[in-house]
Write a structure and sequence with these properties.
mainly alpha; TIM Barrel; 2 domains; four-stranded parallel β-sheet; 4% strand; globular; L-glutamate gamma-semialdehyde dehydrogenase activity; PRODH_PutA_dom_I/II; Bifunctional protein PutA; PRODH_PutA_dom_II
Length: 285
């Protein structure tokens, strides 16, 4: 699996197609939609350029499979004998292709996705937790388009924190499971152009979740967002952490995209904020 993911990374069109399928297929309820997704993502990708690139014979064999699958599922132009043959193969083979690709994609998804619910995710993670690993649970598909979406995501985070709290058995929050929150899931207009309009509402939403996490003595991380909303994310973090109700709590964290050119700036900014809060806390004492 490591070799396969190394060949089809997120820097390639094919890797993005596979990751889209890996996430989407877990939530698709019917075979018609699965057929459409596979046809759309597999047939458009350029699998041929990956042939023979990997040192793994299994990966190279998988590339051949994806290449042939793409040709079978691709719509052909009328009037060409070869294309007519492809259409015949498509009619005969697509159900088989669908099953094989769906199974393969679920294998890939299995490497990244612990479960479809917080209950199943924590249950599956227990094995590694016993070996000393820790989890900050994240939710997939977070993007609030409406106020109803934002309320639903906030409620999902709230319920997840309440459930994870039952697993927090240590006095040290580092040893307890945590949660990662997407700011874009908590407001439908998470854009820098809407900064002043959304800040108060968004900070209130984040603060209420952070207070619940603090009470449970668990980690609470603000997940990374798009680069164009980075300043907005930092402002939300600053305003949330400055709330007196979170003083003395060390479980608040922020995810930094280390590959981004702005990573050093972000780390310096967060470090400066942490120092300021520590100084203020000491002065209060």
């Amino acid at each position: 699996m490591s070799s396969f993911l190394s060949e089809y990374g997120l820097t390639s069109q094919e890797g993005i197609a596979l990751m889209c399928l890996a996430e989407a297929l877990l939530r698709v309820p019917d075979t018609t939609t699965i057929d459409t997704l596979i046809s759309d993502k597999i047939s458009a990708a350029h699998w041929g350029k990956h042939l023979g690139h990997s040192s793994s014979s299994l990966v190279n064999a998988s590339t051949w499979t994806l290449l042939l699958t793409g040709k079978i599922l691709k719509e052909a132009d009328v009037g060409d004998v070869a294309d007519t043959l492809r259409r015949i193969v498509k009619r005969l083979g697509e159900p088989v292709v669908r099953v094989v690709v769906a199974q393969a994609i679920r294998r890939i998804a299995d490497q990244f996705i612990l479960g479809t619910t917080i209950e199943s995710a924590t249950e599956r993670g227990e094995g590694l937790v016993r070996k000393g690993y820790g989890y900050s649970y994240d939710m997939l598909g977070e993007s609030a388009l409406t106020a109803d979406d934002a309320r639903r995501y906030w409620s999902s985070y709230f319920q997840a924190i309440e459930f994870i709290a039952s697993k927090c058995n240590s006095d040290n929050f580092w040893e307890n499971p945590g949660i990662s929150v997407k700011l874009s899931a908590l407001h439908p207009r998470y854009q820098s152009t809407q900064r002043e309009f959304i800040l108060d509402e968004l900070v209130d939403s984040v603060l209420s979740l952070a207070q619940l996490a603090k009470k449970a003595n668990m980690g609470f991380n603000i997940d990374a967002e798009e680069a164009d909303t980075l300043d907005l994310s930092l402002e939300v973090i600053k305003r949330t952490l400055s709330n007196p109700s979170l003083k003395g709590w060390h479980g608040f964290g922020a995810v930094v995209q280390a590959y981004s050119p702005s990573a050093r700036f972000v780390i310096d900014c967060l470090y400066g904020l942490a120092e300021k809060l520590i100084v203020e806390s000491c002065c209060d004492l």
